[in-house]
Write the structure tokens for this entry.
Amino acid sequence: MSSPEVELPIESRVHYLNVDYGIKSWLLTTDHKRIGLMYLVSITFFFCFGGVAAILMRLNLLEPQGLLVEPETYNKLFSMHGIIMVFFFMIPSIPAVLGNFLIPMMIGARDVAFPRLNLLSWYVFMTGGMLTLYAVIAGGVDTGWTFYTPLSTAYTNTHVMAAAAGVFIAGFSSILTGMNFVVTIHKMRAPGLSWFRLPLFIWAMYATSIIFILGTPVIAITLALIGLERWFHVGIFDPALGGDPILFQHMFWFYSHPAVYVMILPSMGVVSELISAFSKKKIFGYHFIAFSSIAIAAIGFLVWGHHMFVSGQSLYAGLVFSALSFAVAIPSAVKVFNWTATLYKGSISYEAPMLYALGFIGLFTIGGLTGLYLATLAIDQHVHDTYFVVAHFHYIMVGGAVMGYLGGIHYWWPKISGRLYPDGWARVAAIIIFVGFNLTFFPQFILGYLGMPRRYAVYPPEFHTLNVISTAGASILGLGYIIPLIYLTWSMRYGPEAGPNPWHATGLEWTTASPPPPHNFEETPVVTEEPYSYDRLAEEIQVA
Amino acid sequence: MHNSHAVVAEQFDDRVQQHEASSLGMWIFLATEIMFFGGLFTGYTIYRNLYTSAFETASHLLNAKIGAFNTVVLICSSLTMALAVHAAQTGKRKRLIAFLLSTMGLGAVFLYIKFVLEWHHEYLDGLAPGLHFTYAGPHASRVELFFCFYFIMTGVHAVHMIVGEGVMTVLLVMAWRGAFSPEKYNPIEMMGLYWHFVDVVWIFLFPLLYLLGARF
């Protein structure tokens, strides 16, 4: 991959950011890079909303009797935190921001296959998001993000309809994004870019898109059924007619468990890129990492019943789901081992993205291993619906997915903005986030194991100390999230120019200018070699 | 496609790539549709097995003859749709317009029968859960459950038909203006895929809802 000719300064060059100005040029754009940035701003907004809810919850739990809010309000806080963070931050995070920005660039295309559908997906997403925010502002929802029946259909008098409608609508943006990515990856690859020359991020996004396509419609029809049942006071989950609320749980988790892999798979893709780039070494076990993404997506569709071990599912179903949940740990572990093997004898450097990647590996491993506890029928009896579960999935979703997301944002920020951020601050923030995260959530493993149930506004006094530690950690974590927000925004204008390839990384996205020209490449690249050829890149640099 | 006259959109290299991409996109969309209906079919199957005789009783309250007639109407509309695609591929504008119109007409007949001759009557007969349900025969509550499925499944199907009619109206105007040619007939072909899919859903719905138990 040849490096481009000598770069003109950012201002004197036409790129996707300065090709057009004004609010209209953004709202009507079909450029995948601009749409990615619009998603970035939108989900950051939703992240702040969900984050405020989390802060209020943690503050309330400073005292066993509840410091701040009534139990009813607390119910609404954790519901809002879950709904907003899952559907309006985590699920769109890497796919809609980095996926949109990078997929065409990584495969050497001018845009995604359906640019207008891509823009439509953003509008659909925002419509769903606004409706959900309306539900929050109008008085909130208290069902939790899981909308379990018959609480959601018959008993609660909160704004379930608006929130469920918001999630339903936002689902179509996932479907459009997934469709676009699969077609783009299949049909738009540059000459010479065969499947096994694709970056592993692309494999991860492909697997994620499959889940979007096959899972999201099921949550859509499920939420529609909830809406109808609430509206007409009669429906297929209504026990009075012989309907079964357990069926709702099956249909809900059929999507919502794979949705967890929607959150973690893209992060795994990012981490594969980061580990290789900052070890300056070819990734170990390329094929295994690529196929483990597909395996996770496939097996991930068959494990949903592990959310229902104690809710009346048959014991035999429980046994099968338990075994399958163990099975999904295999491709996950394959990835962790391959990343570790890549590090071995690499020339490792510790720039901020790498700190996030290493943090990801450690925290994901803890989250994954505690997942095996929960997949064990007998242990799940003990820790079901406790803080152990809360800690487990936050290790996956925050320790894993958000770390990967932040690592990716930092790694590709010079490409996105054309400028460098202050790496010192970035490293400090990464460490603060790592420390804050562990301080917040590790005590919750202990709390859960000791028996503290989730979703309560109050708790027995013996859990006081650990809850205080957790809240203290949350405030550190919150601070850690604010720092990147400041220096990344600052660098957009004041950062030094990054040049096309500040990390000396492989990959087509680094062969074009930063920020990229409106159609990504001056001429369509031709790919002649395997991905992650850091050996050859090192030789080239030495010669130069 | 900023320019509606351009045959190849700027993100594609050539017409073949564009055609393959939109076909694949459509098939993926249909896969999402299968999963969407799949949730309903799964729920239906479970209750059908739990409450076999109640569902048979309920099924016998539907008018299978009208349902069968409607099935024929819909299959005919699939035929005219296929002929419309062929007319577009061979560049026969008048035939394309004629076949699109007949597909839309048959679809409208189906919807008329569904709304006026079926749903309206079932509503008047007190078989509409949540609105007007007065059935008090054997297995009353399970029969109500069946009718929940009946109205939701045929309702979602009807929504898909209405969307199809809307899109076809746009295509009809485009065809009228001569927007299609043997080089550019993709939208008609995609419409065909969608329409056939909606018909196939009905082919499953009809026996599942109307033909339970020993009926004839």
About this structure: The helical segments of chain B are 15-50, 52-59, 64-89, 93-124, 140-176, 186-210. The longest strand of chain B covers residues 127-128. The domain at 15-210 of chain B is CATH 1.20.120.80 (Four Helix Bundle (Hemerythrin (Met), subunit A)).
